[in-house]
DNA sequence: CGTTTCTTTGATCTACTTCAAGGGGAGTGG
DNA sequence: CCACTCCCCTTGAAGTAGATCAAAGAAACG
């Protein structure tokens, strides 16, 4: 299994970009049944009597339609979330109205950590497509983490991983050229898709060019131009939001 | 007391940029005695029988000389740290050698969280001046967090806060102009200095222009030019690394 | 006190932005 | 099922913020 490090030019290792679990193995994710959280939270390491406790936590599944917010900056923080299906973006709104996309969450990934520091969400989370979301009450989770070392470890790693992921994005924004940023982003999404049991090479990227630009610190025009350039060089094949990676090594070489 | 939000144009609220404590109050920090950690970890909320437990954790104080590493990317992760005196920078090294400064840690602030996800440090932490560092074994800390809700909460908030801090920096790198970045950075350091009981208006910034540039995603020349410009406009008074903020509102207005 | 490293400032260059306009796809309503 | 509308995407042309190159001056350090 490729490590994310191998894919991303940015040298921060992500153990398990996922969530309250150690890496949901390819196969596990692929046959994900009712709720991603079951798999995400269960895997290796929990003893059989711990599993029901965890399951009891997962209160509800919430549907969020394309464009709607799962939560908004300023909302009270009560839950962590895991994307069951669909995808979301998280963003910060500057007081002058400028928006910065801080992350993209794919199926199987976690979000909500931006609320831990202040009991108040610092980001807004907006669905990029109709999505369903598993809800995990934070208070209950904390209790469980005091009972069970494994769960404590899992939560800590989740937090640590998101921390490292952000640091990695800081490197992207601070040090890479526009072309490198786009290549890096495509490889990152490709890798994450693959980790959850989907195709390495082809995926729907529901973000608009503008969202990508915001996430990468460049303009939508630049994103578009670079994607066209990549296509001309036979690195990718992009039809709007459907992206097919043709030459993964070529992208990595950038 | 000014909230960091008020200072920083970037709209992520930092509860307590500090550490395992709720905000070390101005006064507390000012009369900091033997070890910053004592104050950082003790304050409000711990019952008297919890305090000794925490103190028992603080194993050692380590000295790091200017330019030396407290830890390096790839090192095994065992401890969290709190800066007792001095300051450090954390950075990621890209495989092609490019470095990105990910943070500046002042006296009273915590570091080491980059190791949690993988049991391996993702950053390197380098002293910007001769510094002394309190060491907090992570394993022991985890145990304590399972015993004591207060400590658990404190650790979670610490992690959450660093997460939000990074997100805030993503906004800086992704959306602000060079001038805004520098102004924002000066205000941030000023605010953090003040929170730890030092001057709001005047401080030694031990980073080089190059470090600042790396942290802010611009070149050292640009940093230098902008500082000169600020000086001409009577916003600051900079003599090398000694920075005096003359017109804090003017800086905020940028 | 000399050497090195950091900082400032100027001149030029360029990667990316901004402005602008045309084209295409997806959803909606007829 | 088609046509309309809206939004998004693409591509071009021109402008600019910031990078790069260069060189001199100022601290810091042994």
From TrEMBL, chains A, B:
HTH crp-type domain residues: 176-249
Stored Gene3D superfamilies: Jelly Rolls, Winged helix-like DNA-binding domain superfamily/Winged helix DNA-binding domain
Entry GO MF terms: DNA binding; DNA-binding transcription factor activity
Signal peptide: none
Chain ranges of the Cyclic nucleotide-binding domain: 42-112
Cellular compartments per GO CC: cytosol
Annotated SUPFAM superfamilies: cAMP-binding domain-like (SSF51206), Winged helix' DNA-binding domain (SSF46785)
Keyword line: DNA-binding, Transcription, Transcription regulation
InterPro entries: cNMP-bd_dom (IPR000595), cNMP-bd_dom_sf (IPR018490), Env_Response_Regulators (IPR050397), HTH_CRP (IPR012318), RmlC-like_jellyroll (IPR014710), Tscrpt_reg_HTH_Crp-type_CS (IPR018335), WH-like_DNA-bd_sf (IPR036388), WH_DNA-bd_sf (IPR036390)
Protein origin, superkingdom: Bacteria
Name this polypeptide is given: CRP/FNR family transcriptional regulator
């Amino acid at each position: 299994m490729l490590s994310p490090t191998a894919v991303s030019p940015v040298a921060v290792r992500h153990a398990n970009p996922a969530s309250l679990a150690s890496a949901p193995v390819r196969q596990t994710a692929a046959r994900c049944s009712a709720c991603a959280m079951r798999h995400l939270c269960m895997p290796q390491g929990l003893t059989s009597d711990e599993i029901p406790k965890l399951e009891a936590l997962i209160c509800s599944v919430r549907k969020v339609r394309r464009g709607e917010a799962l939560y908004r900056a300023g909302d009270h923080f009560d839950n962590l979330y895991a994307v069951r299906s669909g995808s979301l973006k998280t963003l910060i709104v500057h007081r002058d109205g400028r928006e910065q996309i801080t992350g993209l969450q794919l199926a199987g990934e976690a979000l909500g950590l931006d609320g831990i520091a202040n009991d108040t969400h610092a980001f807004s989370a907006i669905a990029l497509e109709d999505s369903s979301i598993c809800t995990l009450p934070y208070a209950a989770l904390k209790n469980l983490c005091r009972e069970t070392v494994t769960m404590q470890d899992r939560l800590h790693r989740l937090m640590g991983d998101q921390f490292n992921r952000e640091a990695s994005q800081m490197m992207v924004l601070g040090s890479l050229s526009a072309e490198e940023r786009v290549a890096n982003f495509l490889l990152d999404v490709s890798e994450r898709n693959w980790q959850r049991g989907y195709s390495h090479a082809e995926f729907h990227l529901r973000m608009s060019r503008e969202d990508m630009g915001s996430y990468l610190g460049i303009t939508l025009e630049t994103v578009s131009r670079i994607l066209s350039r990549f296509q001309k060089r036979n690195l990718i094949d992009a039809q709007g939001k459907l992206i097919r990676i043709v030459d993964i090594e070529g992208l990595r070489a950038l």
